[in-house]
Every structure is written in structure tokens, then in C-alpha cells.
Amino acid sequence: MTVLHELALTVSEPNKLESSVRSEPRLDLSIDGSRPLGAVVPTGIPRLPDYAIPLQPKLLKQINAMHTKEELLAFVGQCYIILDPINLVTCVYRLARMYTGIRHPEARQAWKAELNESSSFQVLLRTIQSHMLAAQLHPPYSQEVKGIDARCVSNLIWALVKLDLALEAGCTGNEVIISISPLVLRLLNQSSPQGLANLLWAYAKLAEPPVEVISSIMSQMTDMLTRDQTGSLFDAQALSNSIWAVAHARSKLANFDGLCGAPGSVSAFLVAIAISANSMLKALYTRLDLAHLSAFLNNVEHKFSCQALVNIVWSFATILGEECGQNPIISQLFLNSRKEAIIRLRATYAALQTQQSWVYHLPGGFNEQALSNVVYAYEKAGMLDRELLQWVFSVATLRLDRRDGPPSFKPQELCTLLRAAHLDICEPQPFLNKLARIVQTMPWIVRNWSPSELNELSRALGLLQPTLLTPHQAQAQQQVQQHAQVQTHHHAHSQAQQQAAAQQLMLQVNALTAAGMGMGGLPNGGVNTNLAAELLAAELHQMTIQNVLTAQLNAAAAAVAAGMSYGSNGASGSQTFNPNLPMGVPADPLQALRALQFSPATRPLGAQGLPPAPVSWP
Fold it and tell me: Which residue has the higher pLDDT, 487 or 385?
């Protein structure tokens, strides 16, 4: 029997509940401010009927059992008036979980549009808001109603942000979050470490993060981290979300460090996060187990996820840049994270070598985003070294060679690795060679790339050495060289013909000059020798210019065919790929010549700030 049926049977017995029901007013969503604050039962405050209070556990169980938006919204439309705040918030939380489980962008957009158009969902949000405002305006109400606590508020704000309902100023979700911010500040002392991390993450995602709230949350977390001697209050994901939130909010707010609390508050927060993360990383004692890769990756992912590991160093590098190496605590964090990252890169590499489909869906290990972010973090911090980058390129090469579908790299992720190929830290040729073959066989994967991304691809693929080319590509280059030899022979033959013509012209001029000198009465016999000499010089000058232009065009063609063998295919977004042409032979000569104008890399060489690493880590 469902809770709705039980409720219907209960209400059908008026003799048992008559006095109780009559003593309780209907739920009124309006707040009556005419009564003094602190009144025991102020009029207009939303309260549950007495008969609904014992039903809350069963209602909660029923909410958690629902798996579709339609089912949950229909339930809300019938029962919102008898749901307490914790069950109302659970409804929003369940909807957020459903939404995050949708992977296809178009399906997510359609799902969210239907949710926003639902009248039941709007009633749900307004009912929650009325309960929260009642708790704000009448503090005894929050003590009397079960569910309005720090966890309830944290889950509500997290769910609204996850539903993408609070990312724009003025939208309903943003309005709800801002309106209950005073309640959030009042409940901070009761918040759990995970709740604080969720709140900080959610507020940082807002279009205009409230500095006062973020500053208070950071101060509370700093105190908790400082008092935490065991390093067990915050897990790795909470640390990752917290430091990411600060990096994200800092990018939106000018003078964030000056506005966010007393001087040094942000620095104290960063150091506290680094100390806690260092303690957790040192306690891992990770030992690579190549014999049981799946179990090993699952185990280390549970202790300290790869995403958290990379996001922490990414956030520190985004906030501090090369200053990361100047702070001993943060510098030690990068060293510890590097050691752990190389162990997991080796495990990921070994797992990918098996070429089994389960490897690409394994929760542990370095995926495409993690590879890109770890390179960005260590390069920006000035601490990217040869061993780390070499392992990243090795894993990325295997990630490109997927057997169950095309590569999963996003253009931005690939471009981060392509820029790293210019740093002269390690040899990127195997990775670039694999990428070149993929672009050749699947040219559609770069058709939606922006011009800047195609430019980055072209510059990086231009680094390929001829010795690393495939036999097909080597054959194509050999054909180009043969064509160049034919052109050279033709050029030499043309020069010989031009020299013969010049000699013949010289003989004609000499003959005319001799004939003129032999005639009496008029010098030169009426033939202007100066004019003849000028004509000869002009003819020779024109022949010289033609020879120079021919040499320049031949050099340009050779450079396009050999030096820019792969770059011409990614020169611009408008260039089409001809699958019948070998890689390195452009379909459009004009665009190939334009490709020669690509500027060299402008990024500085990455600083090798770490000492030489041992051959292998324990």
C-alpha cells in the first residue's frame, strides 16, 4: 500500500483525526509579518498538519524509489502540501541526480526545458522557499520543523546548481539561493566538512558569486582544516571541489583576494588545503600492481580519485602560476602529486596496452581530461619535467588508438598537449605520428575545430621527422622528391635554352655592329649600337628575374610538400580533405602556400624545475 492510499484511508476516518485536523490551518505560502518575531505559532507560517508528520519516513522512501521526472513531479503535484522541508529538498535532489545522469547534450536540454515548464516544479521551488524564509524570519521555526538544518540547505543549493537553474542572474534558482543566503551564514557552524565544500562549490558556480558568503565559508573551512590533526575531516573530493571553487570564483571577481575577508585569508585557506592534501597523499603509500590492474586502479580511485589529484594541482596553478614553486608547502604538494600521477600513468598505460574495451570505461586512471589538465597545471607552475610529460604522451597515444570508436579527446584537450609538444622537454613524435594517421583516416574529427585549434594542430604536426613517417607517407614524400628532381632537370634545361638564346642575341648584335662600322659616310651605318646594347641588357635582366621567380616557386612547392607535410591539411577551417590524396599532398595549392605563413610558437620553453627523477617509482 502506497503512502497516498494510506493517507486516503486515514483521512476517511474523521472521528479519529477530526480534532487534530481542525486545529491545524491549511498550508499558506505567504509570510505574515504582522506578528512579532519569536512568536510560538505565528499566523501565515507554513506548517505541516499533525497527521502528516508520521508519514514523512514513508514519503521519503517513496521519493527515493522514483526514477523518472514525470513520476516525481506527479507525486509533488499531489503531495507537496504534506511534505516537510527535508522531503521537499529531496525531491529537488533526486531531480538533480536524474539530470546529471543524462549524457547527450540535446537530451539534457529537452529534459531541463520540460522541467522548467512544469507547474508542479515551480510550486515545489516556491514551497521550499517559503519554508526557508520562515526559518529565516522566525528562528524558532527552524528548531521546530525537522529538516531545516545545514545539510538540508547545502543539498538544496547543490541540487539547484547541478540542475543549471542558478547559473544566470535573475533566474528562479539563483533567486532562491540568494534569498536563503542569510540562513546559510547562520547555519555555517553546524555544517559538515562535506556540506561546506558543496556550498563553496555551488556559490562559486553562480553568475555573481556573493563574496561575503564565500569568505565566511572559506574562513570556516580554514579553521576546521587547521584544527584537524589527523587529516580525516575532508576527503580528497571535498578538497578538490573547494580549491576549484576558489579558482573559479577568483576568475569572476576582480580583486577577489582583497574583498574576501581579512588580508591573508585566501593565502591561509590555500596553505591549509595544501597541508591536508599533502597528508593524504603521503598516507597513500601507493605501490604499482601490474598483475591486478583493474583492482589496483579501483582501489586508488576510492582512496584519492585521479580527478581530485589533477584538479587540486590545476587549481593551485590557475591561482598562483609560477608562485607555486616558491611556497615550500605548495611546492611539496606538486612533488607528491607528481609521484602519484606517474604511478597512475604507468598503470593506465599498462591497462590500455591490453586493448580491451573495459579499460576505456574504467573509473580510475588518467582519462583525456586528466591528461590535458595535468600538463596545463605543471607547465603553468613551471614544474613540468621530462618524465611526467613523456608518460602523458605515451598514455595519450594509446588513448588515441581506441578500438571501440573514435578518440574521445576534445579539441581544447588535444591543443594543450599539442602546445606542450613545442616545449622541447621530451620527444612528442610518436603521439604526433598517431594523431596524423587518425586525421588522415578520419578527417571529419577536425571539421568543427576553430581556426586557432586547426592552427595549433598544423604547427604541431609540422614537427614530425621524416624517419617517423609510415611507409605510405614515406612513399608520398618519395614521389614528391622525384617530382622535385624532374622540376630541377626542367629548370636546368630551361636555363641552357635561355643561355643559348642570349648567346645568339649577342652574335646578332656583334654582326650588326661590325656591318655598321664597315660602311662609309655614316658611323655604324645608321645602326645605334647603344640601343642594341640596352636591348640586350634588358633581355638578360628579364631572364634573370624569371630564373629567380622559378627558383622561389620551386622552393615553396618543396616546402609545402615536405616541410609542411601535415600542416597544410589543418591550415584553415574552409579547407577540405581529399581522402584520395596522400598525407602531405595538399588538395588546394593556394591554401598550401598560405599555410607557409603560420607563425612559430610564441610560448616560452617550460622550466624544468624538478630534479631528475629515478628510473621508476616504488
Answer: 385
The residue behind cell 498538519 is: 49
Cα 81 vs. chain centroid, distance in angstroms?
A: 42
Using 50, 70 and 90 to split pLDDT, how confident is the model at 226? very high
Grid coordinates of 382: 613551471
Say if CB 413 and CB 449 are below 8 A apart: no
| Residue written as grid cell 558568503 | 213
Are 575 and 569 within 8 A, CB to CB?
yes
Query: Is 196:228 a contact under the CB 8 Å cutoff?
Result: no
562: which DSSP letter?
I
225 SS3 class: helix
Residue 21's CB is within 10 A of a number of other CB atoms, namely 13
Task: Quickly count: other Cβ atoms within 10 Å of residue 18's Cβ.
Answer: 10
Q: What would the mean pLDDT of 206-216 be, rounded to a whole number? A: 92
Q: Residue 211, SS3?
A: helix
Q: Assess contact for 343 and 286: CB atoms under 8 A.
A: yes
200-215 per-residue burial string, b: 16 or more CB within 10 A, e: under 16: bbbbbbbeebbbebbb
CA atoms within 13 A on the CB side of 613: 23
Cβ distance 336 to 281 under 8 Å?
yes
If DSSP codes are grouped into helix, strand and coil, which group holds residue 82? helix
Residue ranges of domains in the chain: 1-191, 192-276
And the C-alpha cell for 526? 645608321
Q: Looking at residue 467, what DSSP letter applies?
A: G
Judge whether 220 and 227 are in contact, CB under 8 Å: no
Q: How far is CA 320 from CA 265, 323, 348, 542, in A?
A: 15, 5, 29, 62
User: 610 in the Ramachandran plot: left (φ > 0), alpha (ψ -120 to 50) or beta?
Assistant: beta
Q: Which residue has the cell 600542416?
A: 567
CA-based nearest residue to 577, from 589, 565, 590, 586: 586
What is the pLDDT at residue 88?
94
* C-alpha cell of residue 209: 558569486
Specify the 3-state DSSP secondary structure of 327: coil
Burial class of residue 105, CB neighbours in 10 A (0-12, 13-18, 19+):
exposed
**For the whole model, what pTM was predicted?**
0.69
Round to whole Å and give the CA distance between 396 and 433: 12
Residue-level pLDDT at 255:
85
Asked if residues 115 and 121 have their Cβ atoms less than 8 Å apart, the reply is yes
Looking at residue 71, its amino acid is: E
Nearest to 512 by CA among 531, 500, 529: 529
Euclidean distance between CA atoms 407 and 368, whole angstroms: 9
**Residue 179's Cα: distance from chain center in Å?**
31
- Torsion (CA) 244, 246, 252, 256 in degrees, nearest 10: -160
